[in-house]
Amino acid sequence: MIKLLHFADVHIGMENYGRTDPSTGLSTRVMDFLRRMDEMVGFAEQRAIDLAIFAGDAFKTRNPNPTFQREFAWRILDLAKICPVVLLVGNHDLPINIKKASSLEIYDTLRVPNVTLGDQYKLHLVETKSGIVQVATAPYPVRARLLEGDDELSTRRTIAD
Fold this sequence. Notes:
The chain is of the alpha/beta class and about 160 residues long. It has helices spanning about 30-45, 65-80, 105-110, 145, 150-160; strands at about 5, 50-55, 85-90, 115-120, 120-130, 130-135. A four-stranded parallel β-sheet has the order 1-2-3-4.
């Protein structure tokens, strides 16, 4: 049996109702989100999770500041030491200009071990400690990409076949 961990919508950068934590320089609200991610990583380790799937919206905005990116990355790297991680691109992760990179694309660019980016309609074969798992990714649909003829529709049909 495959043990799967699913999480989404962490929205790092949400600072409403928080104040600056003097020990970190970050909003107490952001620190709360990050602590929950730390707990999740601990849960994955305790339960020997086979595969983690992040279903998008890592950050509150499309252009997160580098500190928020670093904090999210540390937790993804810790999780990837435990099990493979699939990062699906959500609407908050996508830039307005379709020619620009998403906030999660750096993981693919740097070929971060044990991290798979789901920014295309694609079938991924992910090696886990319990065997190979097929993960079909379908990132947040962007009208401009579909109208541009980005081949996403034909790829989607290929996956369906």
